[in-house]
Each structure stands twice: as C-alpha cells, then as structure tokens.
C-alpha cells in the first residue's frame, strides 16, 4: 500500500500536465499562422518596403521584439501545456497580424491557393477547394464580360451604321423634293403645263426652259436610283436587326425589292428602323455597357485584392451581385434621361452609352446619389406634413 501512493500521485501529476486536445489544436493553428505571417513579412513586405524606402530600410529589424520566433521550434503539445508559452504565441500572432493589415492569415492562404503559389506552408484542403470555386466563378465572369464587350462593340457599329443609312435616306429625299420643286417651277414657266410623267417617259418638251427640264429630269433619275440603293441598305439593316434579336416580327422588305414597295411602306420601314435604333441605344446598349463597366470594376477589384493579398471567400458572390447591379442600373438609366440632351459631368458632355459604362463601374456612387435624393425628398415630404 505504501508503494501505491507514490504511483497514484505521479499518475495524477501526468494527468494534470497532459494538455487538452482543443488547446493542442488551437496551438497547432496558431503556430501555422505564425509561420505563415513570418514568411509573408520576410518574403513579401520586407522587399517591398526596401524598394519603396531605399537601402536604409534594409538594416531595420523586420520583426517586433514582441514576436517570439523561438516558439516555432516547439511542438503544439508543449505550447498548449504551458500557459505562458500559449500567451506568447497569441501575442506574436496578433503583432504580426497587425503588421500585415489589410491582409490576414486567412486571406494570405486563400490568395496563395488562388494564384497557385505560396510560401512553402500547408494550405487546408477546404482552402484549396474554395480557391478552385472562386477561380471558376471568375472565369465565368470573365467570359460574360468578354461576351458583353463583343456584343456592345457590334451593337455600337450596327447602330452607327443604321444612323448613317437613315441620314442618307433623309438627305436623298430632301434633294428629291428640291428637284421636284424646281421641276414644278420650270413647268409653270412653260407656255402650257408639262406633266411630270413626261420626265419619267423621256419625252423632251419643246419650250424655252427645255434644257433645264432635261437637266432636272436627269438629276431626278439619279436621285431615284440613289434612294433605291439606300432603301435596300435600310432593308438589310432591319433584317440584320432581327437576326441580332433587336426586334421580332418585322418582315417587311426582308426578301423583297425596294422597287416593289410603295412610298408609304418605305416611310413605315424608316419609322421601324428609327424605333429599332431607339430600343438599341436606349435599353439594350446601356444594359450591355453597364454590365461591361461592372465587369471592369470586378476584375480591377480582383487585381487589387491579389496585390494586397486580401482575397476573401465572398469575392465571387460580390462580383456576381456587382454584375447584376450593373445590368439593372444600365437598363434603368434611359428612364432618367428622356429629354434627348446629353448629361454633363464636370463640363464634359457624356453620351448615354458612356454614362451607362460609368454607372456600371461606379455602383456605389449611384446608390450614394440615390440615398441623398431620397433623403432630401423624404425631408421635404416630412416638412409639408
């Protein structure tokens, strides 16, 4: 019995000295963070500071005296069983964490896994899987942004071509009206009225102004051929608009010849083309450019996070919401500018398309402006009660 007492006492002492499994796990994580932060400070921050501050920064100590690097030589069980060492570990990680702000141990691990590099430290499997998910999301957003860019360029070229065709058609019609007015003046000066049909039939009337009559008839014939060619271009442009999905259900003149259409039909076609231009430039194009502006912001922000080692797990969700807001605000922009006048920012006139891109890029500014406007309206309503 005398020998049993010392054995029980030593067993109790061993039980008291044995660290808790939770404490060992915490010490393991903290040691990993300490090793990671130490390597980050020495391999990333210190060279950057030396390049920015000059050679004088090379002699400065990279670590604070509060950082106990000797803890890296100890096992997690040893640190967990000693309250003093565990406190030193917490303090060292906290000091290094403040030194790498705005980055953190978690953001450094995630950024390292995302770019496929690292500092020779282990990354949890969950971190690797999260990095792969983020990479897939950003690839999808890059493809969507590229598609928006190509579609926006195509629509810009298409709408500009449509404006040119409509302007050419209006110019040719104006010239034809002027020529017909001149023909009427010449006919009124003739001894007896000369019908316009004689100009189309090629019959040359004999009177003092017959030479001018023939010149005007030749001019009208040339203008008629020019108008026919421009109207054919308008027909092709409208058909291309249907293929682009701008308008559905317009088939007038798609496969026919302008020679077989009446003037009223071509007036309708011109109005239809004008309406298509309005829809493209007022709704579809601002939505695409709002998406393009949001895509530019998302990848600019991703570049900033990678440079600062601050990539976080919500980056993909934030980027997707940004794209959605860019589309919505770009599409709604035409509701606020319906007067046809170009808005001016700091004295510079902006087109609706350019403003849609800026709105998609600066979503926060738009919401700040809306908050200010709503607060002002709410204050006025409250004062009137």
What descriptive keywords fit this protein?
mainly alpha, two-stranded antiparallel ribbon, 12 helices, 1% strand, disordered N terminus
Q: Which structural class do you get from the secondary structure elements?
A: mainly alpha
Percentage beta strand: under 5%
Contiguous low-pLDDT stretches (5 residues minimum) are: 1-17, 246-261
Order of helices and strands: HHHHHHHHHHEEHH
Largest sheet: 2 strands, antiparallel
Question: Largest beta sheet: what is the strand line-up?
Answer: 1-2
| Helix proportion | over 70%
- Kindly state the mean pLDDT as a whole number? 76
Number of domains: 2
End-to-end distance, in Å? 93 Å
Q: What's the number of extended β-strand segments?
A: 2
Gyration radius, to the nearest Å?
Answer: 38 Å
**How many DSSP helices?**
12
Dominant shape: elongated
Task: Give an overview of the whole structure.
About 75% of the residues lie in helices and about 0% in strands. It has a two-stranded antiparallel sheet. Strand 1 and strand 2 form a beta hairpin. It is elongated and about 120 Å long. The protein has about 375 residues and is mainly alpha-helical. Helix 8 (about 210-245) crosses helix 9 (about 265-310). The chain has two domains: about 15-100; about 135-385, no CATH class.
């Amino acid at each position: 019995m005398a020998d049993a007492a010392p054995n029980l006492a030593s067993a109790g002492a061993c039980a008291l000295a044995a660290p808790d499994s939770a404490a060992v796990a915490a010490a393991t994580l903290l040691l990993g963070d300490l090793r990671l932060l130490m390597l980050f400070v020495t391999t990333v921050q210190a060279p950057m500071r030396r390049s920015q501050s000059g050679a004088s920064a090379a002699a400065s100590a990279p670590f604070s005296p509060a950082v106990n690097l000797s803890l890296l030589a100890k096992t997690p069980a040893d640190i967990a069983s000693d309250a003093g060492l565990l406190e030193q570990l917490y303090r060292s990680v906290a000091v290094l964490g403040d030194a790498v702000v705005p980055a953190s141990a978690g953001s450094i691990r995630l950024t390292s896994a995302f770019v496929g590099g690292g500092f020779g430290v282990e990354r949890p499997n969950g971190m690797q899987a999260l990095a792969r998910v983020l990479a897939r999301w950003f690839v999808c957003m890059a493809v969507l942004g590229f598609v928006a860019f190509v579609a926006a360029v195509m629509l810009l070229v298409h709408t500009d071509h449509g404006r040119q065709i409509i302007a050419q058609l209006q110019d040719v019609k104006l010239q034809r009206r002027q020529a017909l007015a001149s023909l009427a003046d010449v006919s009124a000066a003739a001894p007896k009225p000369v019908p316009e049909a004689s100009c189309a039939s090629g019959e040359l009337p004999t009177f003092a102004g017959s030479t001018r009559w023939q010149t005007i008839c030749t001019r009208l014939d040339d203008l008629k051929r020019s108008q026919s060619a421009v109207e054919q271009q308008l027909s092709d442009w409208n058909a291309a608009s249907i293929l682009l999905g701008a308008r559905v259900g317009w088939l007038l003149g798609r496969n026919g010849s302008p020679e077989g259409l009446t003037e009223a039909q071509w007036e309708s076609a011109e109005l239809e083309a004008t309406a298509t231009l309005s829809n493209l430039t007022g709704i579809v194009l601002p939505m695409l450019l709002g998406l393009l502006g949001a895509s530019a912001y998302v990848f600019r922000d991703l570049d900033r996070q990678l440079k600062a080692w601050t990539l976080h797990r919500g980056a993909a969700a934030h980027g997707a919401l940004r794209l959605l807001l860019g589309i919505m605000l770009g599409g709604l922009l035409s509701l606020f500018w319906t007067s046809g006048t170009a808005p001016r920012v700091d004295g510079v006139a902006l087109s609706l398309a350019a403003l849609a891109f800026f709105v998609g890029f600066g979503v926060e500014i738009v919401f700040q402006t809306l908050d200010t406007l709503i607060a002002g309206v709410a204050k006025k309503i409250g004062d009137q009660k």
